[in-house]
Amino acid sequence: MNARYGLILFLSLFFWIAAMPESQAAENGYTLQECLQTALKLNPDIAMAEQNAAAADAQKDYAHGEQWPALILRSTYTHSLDTQRLTTIRQPNEPSVFSEDNWKGDIFLTLPLFTGGRIIHSIQAAELLQLASEKRLARTRQELIYNVSSVFYDILAQRKVVDSLQFSQHVLEEHEQRIHQLIQAERAAKVDLLRTQVQLANVIQNRIQEANKLDIQQQVLANLMGIENATEPLEIEGELNEEPFPAGRVSPPDRAYENRTDLQADQAEYQAQTNRVAAAAAEQWPALSLFGSYGGVWGIDPDFKQPGAASLEDTGMIGFAVEVPLFVGGRIQAKVREEQAKQLALQERVRKRRLQIQLEIETSIKTVQSIYQRVIAVKTAIAQAKESFRIEQEKYNAGKGTITDVLDAQSAMLTAETNYYQALAEYNIAIAQYDFAMGESQ
User: Fold this and answer.
1) Which of 323, 351, 382 is the last residue of a domain?
2) Do residues 197 and 301 both lie within one domain?
3) pLDDT band at residue 26 using 50, 70 and 90 as cut-offs
4) Which pLDDT value is given to residue 310?
5) Which one of 16, 66, 184, 424 is most buried, counting C-beta atoms within 10 A?
6) Are residues 165 and 278 in the same domain?
7) Structural domains in the chain (count)
């Protein structure tokens, strides 16, 4: 019995120790890199983009398959109202078999020899479209990285805001107790207590509201990460960057043109459309192909069989086929005009994308610079607001200040802290937006 209890204790201890790293990881929360890794693995947008890339790869293989020979097995059974000759006459006085029921099996071979460049241009277009789908997938990943980073920074800032409100609530509660003491000592009026309680109620209400906002942001992050059935708020760990944006990171738009995979996808689609125009124009050329077949025909229960004739005969042929579109109702010309119009539209989309990239870069640079100036200004205001609140508290305790001054100073301190953390989050998001505009990947 003791040995069994000892084994049970040992196994329990073993599994408890084995589970400790996971518990510790869950307690510490996700870092930004862990959030990004999980999102890139589980986010459905990435999965959809990957499947679109796989579909484009299959379309490329299909286009390549058109240039290869096609080998087809065909088998037919026919029942005729009148008896049919099994094979055509190959020589005079050849014995024949006549039957109402015939079975025929053939292997057909076709090989395109000349299509005016249609197949070649179709293959090139499919290869370029596959490249475009890969670039779209890369851009989808970059967009997901930006979105996850933005929500991550918002959560860090929102957590600081909730902490500031919690601290303000604690300060006001202590101040409320102090006023009770001053009222008992007949050194403060009851109206001061009422004003403090009103301010405290507002802070509590704001804290509840901001805490709910934090829970929603954590749920949004879990959704971006592709985590299903997330019942608990997603815990994260990290710090907001306060370092100034280095001037050396500012790059010319030409670098963005080289890095932006969405621009590269647009350019690839435009080039693919150029090949589609050529493939549509190739339809007006003659098409030359090689064909051949070999098989057999069997007369089932023949109605008439001449002496020396066989019920099973082999058949075969080989030849060339030329197809010349003499008149197709203008369909080829209409198809060419359609593809040319699509080509011009894609050309304008490429130009629009370049203009958009230029605007995004210029906007993100100015946003980073202006928000950092706000961060510096608000950070200075925090220290001043804290000192002002301390002074007003001391004046009030000494009977030289009013409760209005104390509450105004406390409100100003809370506003300064809230503005600082929000500006700091916007600063980090603006940096991520600049990297996203430049096509940089983390």
Assistant:
1) 323
2) no
3) very low
4) 78
5) 424
6) yes
7) 2
Cβ–Cβ < 8 Å for 216, 233: no
pTM of the model: 0.82
pLDDT at residue 161, as a whole number: 94
307 pLDDT higher than 50: yes
Q: Clarify whether residues 82 and 193 are in a common domain.
A: no
Q: Which residue has the tokens 């020589």?
A: 91
The DSSP bridge partners found for residue 290 are 111, 320
End-to-end CA distance of the chain: 58
User: Taking the mean position of all CA atoms in its chain, how far away is CA 54?
Assistant: 15
Q: Give 235's contacts (C-beta < 8 A, 6+ positions apart).
A: 26, 27, 28, 29, 30, 218
Strands (E), 285-378: 287-300, 304-305, 312-323
Residue 442 exposed, middle or buried by CB count within 10 Å (0-12, 13-18, 19+): middle
CA distance 183 to 189: 6
Q: What are phi and psi of 246, to 5 degrees?
A: -70, 140
User: Closest Cα to residue 140, out of 363, 351, 362, 439?
Assistant: 439
CB 151 within 8 A of CB 437: no
Please determine, for residue 441, whether its predicted confidence score (pLDDT) is greater than 70: no
Q: What is the mean pLDDT of residues 407-412?
A: 89
Give the range of the structural domain holding residue 155, as residue numbers without chain letter: 30-68+116-286+331-438
* Residue in this structure with the two tokens 């204790």, named with its chain if needed: 9
CATH number of the CATH domain containing 319? 2.20.200
In a domain, 217, yes or no: yes
Burial status of residue 263 (CB atoms within 10 A of its CB: 0-12, 13-18, 19 or more): buried
- Rounded to 5 degrees, φ, ψ at 374 are -65, -40
Domain membership of residue 23 (yes or no) is: no
Q: Please indicate, yes or no, whether residues 298 and 170 belong to a single structural domain of this protein.
A: no
- The DSSP code sequence of 298-314 is EEES-SEE-TT--SEEE
One domain for residues 105 and 251: no
What is the per-residue pLDDT for 213?
A: 95
SS3 85: strand
User: Is the model's pLDDT at 42 over the cut of 90?
Assistant: yes
- Residue for token pair 């679109």: 52
CATH code, domain carrying 397: 1.20.1600.10
